[in-house]
Amino acid sequence: MKSKTADRIATGVFVAIAIIIVSILVGLFSYILINGFKHISWEFLTTPSSNIRAGGGIRDQLFNSFYILLITMIIAVPLGVGGGIYMAEYAKPGKITDTIRSCIEVLASLPSIVIGMFGLLVFVNVTGWGYTILGGALALTVFNLPVIVRVSEDSIRTVPRDLKEASLALGITHWHTIKTVLLPSAFPSILTGIILAAGRVFGEAAALLFTAGLSTPRLDYANWNPFSEQSPLNIFRPAETLAVHIWSVNTQGLIPDVEAVSNGSAAVLVISVLLFNLLARWIGSIITKKMTATK
Amino acid sequence: MQICIYPIMTYFRGVWCIMEKIIPAKERLIKSSKNRMDGELRGKILVILCAVIMISATISITIFLGTKGLQSFIKNGVSLIEFLTSTHWNPTNQANPEYGALPFIFGSFAVTFLAALIAAPLGIGAAIFMTEIAPSWGRKILQPVVELLVGIPSVVYGFIGLTVLVPFVRAHVGGLGFSLLSGMIVLSVMILPTITSIATDAMGSLPKYLREGSYALGATRWQTIRKVLIPAALPGLLTAVVLGMARAFGEALAVQMVIGNVRNLPSSILDASATLTTIITLNMGHTTYGSVENNTLWSMGLILLVMSFAFILLIRYLSSRRKL
Amino acid sequence: MVTTYLEKESTEQTIQTTVQLHMEHILKVHNLEIFYGEKRAVNGISMDIEKNSITALIGPSGCGKSTFLRSVNRMNDLIPGARAQGEIIYEDLNILSKQINVVALRKEIGMVFQKPNPFPKSIYENITHALKFSGLKKKSQLDELVEESLQKAALWDEVKDRLHKSALSLSGGQQQRLCIARTIAMKPTVMLLDEPSSALDPISNAKVEDLIVELKKDYSIIIVTHNMQQASRISDKTAFFLSGDLIEYDATEKIFTNPSVKKTEEYISGRFG
């Protein structure tokens, strides 16, 4: 009978662990959302932040976050998908492929602060750009690339071999087969992976502290010339993102309403990440529906 | 040119038979400049380029951070032994600057191990809950929970740690609140999803006959888990914990916001402390690039890089054991 | 050549005999060996494949018949570690040579697989996909060819109203005929069929068999099959493979009524395999 009692106790412990984890999540989310919603208003989202006075918004930070995300993805997606295609279709088993795999593994496990330092060294100092959106985006590319490579490789590998053979047997070249048969079939799962990666990039701060900087110049949203200093589109200007903003107001900020601003920003950040997550799930469910409907 | 190469084209001009006789098999079928597949080559070069960029990124990160990180020892003459073993960090003292990074190295390892100590049982427990106790509904609830926890940005964890956890510790446990304890708790929540999802994979990939065999012998579920499943999944579970620790070791901002950032060795878990990442985060911005103090920060970055390689080697060792 | 042409003008009976006498060989296989890494899957076989006829390859699983088939249009190139030695002569060229443009070769030697594998695109696009890649862009020509190939594959009447629906909405048998149609559209000279009807129900199977016999007029067909009745029903010549060796290769009637090798007889009468 002793073993039965032990079994019951163990089951209880495991259930308790599950409850603890769920309540951590529920606690975190409700704290963030309940505290944050009070501060989110149209005004909060559309006024620029203030360094000293209370009542600042997050307009520029929000724009910067999305803009850096966009630039990062423009660089990282082609590179990552290309790398994934190489790994799935061209890499032959051997030393070179093992080396590339190790490189991906190393890149994936680098702490983001280390990537930030690398960015500071190369994209800020060596190039002489200073803190720029482009430098931040390149650092985030390093951070993001291994994820996209893996997602693309896995997605391409799961495309049935039959389809590839069918295309090749019709006298279509390997590359054209990749472009017109493999990639379209793998596209939905690659997209899901990319959106999840985008969520991660959106919330990343450590890699941006020393690359995109902690400040934003005065922006003129009527100026859409990407080469102008005041244009929000200029990729050679410093840019503080939302995630960096939360950190900087909390650790070095002078504004009196730190909590209000950070609560609001944290809520916006979490909601955005949540939206990315939901979007990815939604696309994922559409795919499975399509797949099962046609079979 | 292509018209002559593909019989199908010529067929449509109504002269298929004639054309086929005109084009000898040699010209149709042997590789030559005429029927070379330019797109094929271009595509291949394109993706190889992507792979090359990845390799060169990794190599250049290693080289750049390696040389920069060694400068403090080579160029500035900071003693490596002092850097690694001394507890006195006083780089701004003009007369007698001291560069002992041991408190930060210790701080990094301390929070990492302490966080793993909490997160490992919780994460593995959750994995067992999902695979053994309630495989159907338990998984349906916990899986998205874990995914959402991964999604929360680290600054948000840090911010909540700062506004909720630190005051709580100050009021109910003692000390200033900014402490190893707070860092440990924040980190353990952050690495929990990593450990849980990998441990779940490890438990889930165990062959069915292990369970069935054990139940057939009359073992209870707990006995099966403890005596059969956990030992069988051990390398995978350890991999999960090591990956979690790797993440904890490299985490910067969340820890920095709650740990207090003092330069002394902590004497208790309630003392404020600092880690390699937090010192880098705090001081990189306001030290002069190229100064000795700045260079020692790069040396700390190099330690992070080396540790990240060490974690990879450890994981490789564990996964090689898994195959046996 | 000239005599064959002249004699074709005379009565049907004479055509039959003369064609057999003057049978052209589309493929000449000479001492073909195929390896997967260290393992030898095909042990130096030699056989000539006749033009405009159906050649059936039979034998138990793993006897090397599919491996042989896949080497004819170099599909084995996809398998890491696979290599072939010897010769397969097509139009005076050894198609196993490194100099061969595999892509151009596969346009002339088409292949249909065991499992129907239409692209997840529309029926129309399934056929035009490879044509467009080959440089055919005009819509009128594409339309014409889609209809022609679907007609030949006996699928036109069933799908003409839904050409732009997904090919995956078709039944298994229809999908397989679509796969044959898209191969026909490329105007190959040789068609390789790898157990094309083994995954189908009996009715679809019968349709595909009729289709194959019909196609003989225009193409030289090599078919791998597990189904002995199928081989005897549709093929002109049959080759029996056993553990990588070509045991016997002769007219189908001879193989099935009076095989000269004992192993063949045993296999055909169902004593093993």
Give the amount of beta strand of chain A, in percent: under 5%
Sheet of most strands of chain A? none
Dominant shape of chain C: globular
The helix/strand class of chain A is mainly alpha
How far apart are the first and last residues' alpha carbons of chain A, in Å?
A: 51 Å
How many separate domains of chain A?
1
Radius of gyration of chain A, in Å, reads: 23 Å
Task: Report the helical percentage of chain A.
Answer: over 70%
Could you tell me the radius of gyration of chain C in angstroms? Answer: 19 Å
Compute the number of helices of chain C: 12
Question: Which structural class do the helices and strands of chain C define?
Answer: alpha/beta
Instruction: State the helical fraction of chain C.
Output: 25-40%
Counting DSSP H or I runs of 4 or more residues, the number of helices of chain A is 11
| Shape label of chain A | globular
Ranges of chain C where pLDDT stays below 50 over 5 or more residues in a row are: 1-21
Architecture (CATH level 2) name of chain A: Orthogonal Bundle
Domain ABC transmembrane type-1 (chain A): 62-280
Keywords (chain A): Cell membrane, Membrane, Transmembrane, Transmembrane helix, Transport
Transmembrane segments (chain A): 12-34, 66-88, 100-123, 129-149, 181-202, 266-287
Membrane topology (chain A): Multi-pass membrane protein
Short description:
The complex is a heterotrimer of chains A (295), B (324) and C (273). Chain A is 74% helix and 0% strand.
Tell me about this structure.
- The complex is a heterotrimer of chains A (295), B (324) and C (273).
- Chain A has helices spanning 2-37, 42-46, 59-90, 95-109, 112-126, 133-158, 161-169, 174-203, 206-209, 242-251, 258-294.
- Chain A is mainly α and 295 residues long.
- Chain A has one domain: MetI-like (MetI-like fold).
- The radius of gyration of chain A is 23 Å and the shape is globular.
- Chain B has 324 residues and is mainly α.
- Chain B is built from 15 helices and 2 strands.
- In chain B, strands 1-2 form a two-stranded antiparallel ribbon.
- In chain B, a hairpin with a 7-residue loop joins strand 1 (89-90) and strand 2.
- Chain B is flat, with a radius of gyration of 29 Å.
- The model of chain B is unreliable at 1-21 (pLDDT under 50).
- Chain C is α/β, with parallel strands linked by helices and 273 residues long.
- Helix content of chain C is 39%, strand content 25%.
- In chain C, the strands form 2 sheets. In chain C, strands 6-7-8-3-9-10 form a 6-stranded mixed β-sheet, sandwiched between helices.
- In chain C, strand 7, helix 9 and strand 8 (220-224) form a beta-alpha-beta unit.
- Chain C is globular and about 55 Å long.
- Classes of the chains: A mainly alpha (295), B mainly alpha (324), C alpha/beta (273).
- Chain A binds chain C through residues 92-93, 160, 162-173, 176, 180-181, 184-185, 294-295, and chain C through 73, 75, 78, 80, 103-108, 110-111, 113, 115, 117-120, 129-130, 133-134, 166, 168-169, 179, 182-183, 186.
- Chain A: It is a multi-pass membrane protein.
- Chain A: Keywords: Cell membrane, Membrane, Transmembrane, Transmembrane helix, Transport.
- Chain A: One of its GO terms (biological process) is phosphate ion transmembrane transport.
